[in-house]
Specification:
This protein has about 400 residues and is an alpha/beta fold. The chain contains 14 helices and 17 strands. It folds into 2 domains: about 170 residues, 3-Layer(aba) Sandwich (Rossmann fold); about 200 residues, Phosphoglycerate kinase, N-terminal domain (Rossmann fold, 3-Layer(aba) Sandwich).
């Protein structure tokens, strides 16, 4: 269902409380990557252009309900001020009398950033008192933090119980792009899934098996499927909890394949892999067939033949959804599969949607973000959305 956005309400002179996703990496007290800050700028600028008083809030890191100097929002305020080209007043608390007084004294066009919402134990508990104190700062609540939309926290859901809630532009685009990918894709639809933990993605995988023409599996997920096929993957990471589900999916694919007139597969697994003698960036490595892993070695990437095998269905596809790297991307020696898949997607005319997380980081590192149709800001949120789960942060936004 379509959600109300900032275009649908009067914000002239109003106090607008915006939940942004400023959970950015820090290095030496500075913002190391400002992608998420830049993603919030269109919403903030629209509010300023329409005479609003803008109060921003976000979490940063995992402070576990208590203040931590290294997770204060000051570096975010500094970078945000540079990107906006105007002053951003940084408060040293999230709620309280001083915060309330400062907000009451705001003039249209002012921007305030509250301290890290997770410094308060009431944030993750969706504590009603904390939610009310946040809501008291606002005439309108704007949720523009898709990356935390799958969390029912005070700053994403609790506030919306006390003031009208609408979506910002980033939230709107995420819902539109992911919604179209799953419900109205240009066909054929292909899905690429990777990453380590398959048990979290079984639900997504089952949905995509039904909706996509092609499902390509790499990364740690593929190890579990190879083992489910009876292949000895030696010391490779395997999600034991997910083996039965993998066998079920393989059986479903075999049955479906037997009924298809054309013999092109739907499910693509690695045919060759890059293996290492230990889990280390400088480990000895070699390329071997997926069913011939040397004793005591482990799979850390997909091989070149697998990349070539993946290329054909991707070229035939009109829409592609990708979540999860093809190998241990943080080790340069085992990042080639992920980079090559990203390169293939960047060269296609298809609608390419990257589902956040490590795959988004890989695309950014290669400078290919602008070559993709959409790179989601939420890894976990995008997966739950694709699976068809209701996201609490989205449900709390008013319907049109």
């Amino acid at each position: 269902m379509a959600k109300k956005t900032i275009r649908d309400i009067d914000i002239d002179g109003k106090r607008v409380l915006v939940r942004a996703d400023f959970n950015v990496p820090l290095r030496d007290g500075k913002v190391a990557d400002d992608t998420r800050i830049r993603a919030a700028l269109p919403t903030i600028q629209y509010l300023l252009d329409h005479n609003a008083k803008v109060v921003l809030m976000s979490h940063l890191g995992r402070p576990k309900g208590e203040p931590k100097d290294e997770l204060k929002m000051d570096p975010v305020a500094e970078t945000l001020a540079e990107r906006l080209g105007k002053r951003v007043k940084m408060l040293d608390q999230t709620v309280g009398p001083e915060v309330k007084r400062t907000v009451e004294e705001m003039a249209p066009g002012d921007v305030i950033l509250l301290e890290n919402t997770r410094f308060d134990p009431g944030e993750k508990k969706k504590d009603p008192e904390f939610s009310k104190q946040l809501a008291a700062l606002a005439d309108v609540f704007v949720n523009d933090a898709f990356g935390t939309a799958h969390r029912a926290h005070a700053s994403t859901v609790g506030v919306a119980e006390y003031v009208p809630a609408v979506a910002g532009f980033l939230m709107e685009r995420e819902l539109q792009m992911l919604g179209d990918t799953m419900n109205n894709p240009k066909e054929p639809l292909a899905a690429i899934l990777g990453g380590a933990k398959i048990i979290d993605k079984i639900g997504v995988l089952k949905v995509l098996i039904e909706k996509a023409e092609y499902v390509l599996i790499g990364g740690g997920m593929a190890n579990t499927f190879l083992q489910a096929q009876g292949i000895d993957v030696q010391n490779s990471l395997v999600d034991e909890e997910a083996l039965d589900a993998a066998r079920e999916i393989l059986a479903h694919e075999a049955e479906r394949q037997s009924k298809r007139e054309e013999k092109e597969p739907q499910l693509y697994l690695p045919v060759d892999v890059v293996v290492a003698d230990e889990f280390a960036p400088d480990a000895e490595a070699q390329v071997v067939p997926a069913d011939e892993i040397p004793e005591g070695w482990r799979i850390l990437d997909i091989g070149p033949e697998t990349v070539q095998r993946f290329r054909a269905p991707l070229r035939r596809s009109k829409t592609i959804f990708w979540n999860g790297p093809m190998g241990v991307f943080e080790f340069d020696r085992f990042a080639k599969g992920t980079r090559e898949v990203a390169g293939i997607l960047a060269g296609l005319r298809a609608v390419t949607v990257v589902g956040g997380g490590d795959s988004a980081a890989a695309v950014a590192e290669m400078g290919l973000t602008k070559k993709m149709t959409h790179v989601s800001t939420g890894g976990g949120a995008s997966l739950e959305f694709v699976e068809g789960k209701e996201l609490p942060g989205v449900a709390a936004i008013e319907d049109k």
